[in-house]
UniProtKB/TrEMBL annotation:
It is found in: Nucleus, Nuclear pore complex. One of its GO terms (molecular function) is nuclear localization sequence binding. Gene3D superfamilies: 1.20.920.60, Peptidase S59, nucleoporin (3.30.1610.10). Belongs to the nucleoporin GLFG family. This is Peptidase S59 domain-containing protein. It comes from Polarella glacialis (Dinoflagellate).
Length: 248
């Protein structure tokens, strides 16, 4: 991913080794996202969808590489933000809006620049005093699922690192993937939450009748409880799994 960002045509190890010289950090510092070619942007987007870039596993295996992965994630978010902000600005011009671009920038960042996550309420519209007491903070990834943190949450620091703290992948939600950063139970986002996951269909099993659906639903209930969570519901036809946790 770093090779793609820095313009290496074939980012294989042999090519990357040549870049690991005394000027490597300078290249990272001087990188200008605005000059990033569209073809390279698409390649980066595809790479950043790999769970390794966001599940925290790199921090345990190789901290140096984890830092580079974080840098690539930030580049990816900036590119998404730039694209959406530009599109939004064009739409506003088309309908004759003559207002400052600052509000549109905030909308673009809050709704689209969270690595595919939608955050409700919109933290970037809240003043500092309201950020300290956000009720039922909800983080959603379209088509994947959502997690709602129950009660009041202090988001004054979380607003800067939410994508590193909450990871929503198909079939799972991970909060604090880097266990070293996890706060005590009851603090920040390590608290009771309601979770909904979509697309949780069994790979081979089919449900010919109501009895088969109910039997599989009970299997999902048992699996949920084995994980220490509270089962809420499971829709066999839609693959929607709902449960609650006391903490992460």
């Amino acid at each position: 991913a770093v090779g793609i960002v820095l313009g290496v045509s074939e980012p294989r190890w042999a090519s990357m080794r040549k870049m690991l010289d005394n000027n490597f950090l300078a290249r990272l510092h001087s990188f200008e996202p605005g000059s990033f070619p569209e073809a390279q942007r698409e390649r980066l987007r595809l790479l950043l969808e790999v769970p390794t870039f966001s599940d925290g596993s790199l921090s345990e295996r190789c901290p140096a590489v984890a830092s580079l992965a974080t840098w690539c994630n930030h580049v990816g978010r900036f590119i998404e933000w730039e694209s959406v902000a530009s599109q939004l600005g064009q739409e506003l011009v088309a309908v004759g809006h003559g207002r400052s671009s600052e509000p549109e920038t905030e909308v673009a960042r809050s709704h689209c620049m969270m690595g595919g996550l939608l955050v409700e309420p919109d933290l970037w519209k809240l003043p500092e005093d309201e950020l300290a007491y956000v009720e039922n903070l909800t983080v959603t990834r379209e088509g994947v699922g959502s997690v709602t943190f129950q009660g009041s949450t202090d988001c004054r620091q979380l607003v800067h690192c939410l994508t590193e703290v909450v990871v929503l992948n198909p079939g799972e939600v991970v909060v604090y993937p880097n266990q070293k950063l996890k706060p005590p139970v009851g603090s920040d986002l390590n608290k009771p939450a309601s979770i909904t996951l979509y697309g949780c269909h069994p790979k081979t099993q089919r449900f010919p009748d109501t009895r088969a659906r109910e039997k599989y639903k009970q299997r999902v209930r048992a699996m949920t409880e084995e994980k220490g969570a509270e089962f809420v519901d499971y829709d066999c036809d839609r693959g929607v799994w709902q449960f609650r946790v006391a903490h992460f």
